[in-house]
Automatic annotation (TrEMBL):
Methyltransferase in keyword set: yes
GO molecular function, one term: methyltransferase activity
Protein name (record): CheR family methyltransferase
Originating species: Paenibacillus gansuensis
Domain CheR-type methyltransferase: 23-279
Length: 279
């Protein structure tokens, strides 16, 4: 019985490996170094959703049906986000990083893995309140085109605003949060002026290179889905993309500690995972 169980696990690993290799070689999306347990769970979800029996069946469908591939990509790149998520990070950003950014004539910020954009609009609001948005460019990137389209639209469910308002207050918000959006039916649309200095673009952290030098990079709760090898590759990308004394913000379950670049940063806040690159 144990051998049968082991054989099934081995076959499953082979099937997953072949699926990921096929997606990479045919479409160019590379999930081969993502954390296995999370990948496995999401792949099986897609197998059942497509009313298939096996991962091999999903591979066949994904390679021949672009719509199926897009649904699988959404599963594999899904992320949970919200406005002013982890308010303590945004508060610390106001207190510790904004005073440094005031010294720059021009500020470039990269939201890597921006998902549907809630944190991008949060940063725009924060910078506007601190008088820095007019000299800032926010580059918001993600590998998921569907998520980027939602981010560009800036339309979010009205039911989320109660939680977002609470986050905003805890993040040190200085105005009425409702002044930044207009409610219509069951949705809200954020003020178009917040988008004036945003640039949305498709970028894959796994396969694409740096495209600019930044004073701030935020990549929050993305690296937890990567294995150690891929995390180190992305940290190299971030390090090379940050200006001297640039700032890196990671997610609540992530840290620069125990990575190959741990000695390259000064800790601004261990609790909020904010770091400054040494010159």
């Amino acid at each position: 019985m144990e051998n049968k169980h082991t054989d099934e696990e081995e076959r499953e690993k082979i099937e997953i490996g072949l699926l990921l290799e096929g997606i990479y070689r045919y479409y160019g999306f590379d999930f081969r170094n993502y954390a296995y347990s999370s990948l496995r769970r999401r792949i099986w979800h897609r197998v059942y959703s497509e009313k298939l029996q096996t991962i091999s069946g999903l591979q066949e469908k994904a390679l021949h049906d672009r719509a199926c591939l897009d649904r699988l990509l959404s599963d594999l790149s899904i992320s949970v986000t919200e406005m002013f998520r982890d308010p303590g990070m945004f508060l610390k950003f106001r207190e510790e990083i904004v005073p440094v950014l005031r010294n720059y004539p021009y500020i470039r910020i990269w939201h890597a893995g921006c998902s549907t954009g809630e944190e991008v609009y949060s940063m725009a609001i924060l910078l506007q309140e601190e008088g820095l948005y007019d000299r800032t460019r926010i580059y918001a990137t993600d590998m998921n085109q569907a998520s980027l389209e939602k981010a560009k639209a800036g339309v979010y469910p009205l039911e989320k605003m109660k939680q977002y308002t609470q986050n905003y207050i805890e993040a040190g918000g200085k105005q009425s949060f409702s002044s930044y959006y207009t409610a219509k039916y069951n949705s809200v649309i954020f003020d178009p002026s917040l988008k004036k200095n945003m640039i949305f673009a498709e970028h894959n952290l796994v396969t694409d290179r740096s495209f600019n030098e930044f004073q701030v990079i935020l990549c929050r709760n993305v690296l937890i889905y990567f294995n150690k090898e891929l995390q180190d590759r992305v940290h190299k990308l971030f390090y090379e993309s940050l200006s001297p004394n640039g700032f890196l913000a990671l997610g609540s379950k992530e840290s620069i500690h125990f990575t190959s670049y741990a000695d390259c940063y000064q800790v601004i806040s261990d609790r909020e995972n904010l770091y400054m690159k040494f010159t």
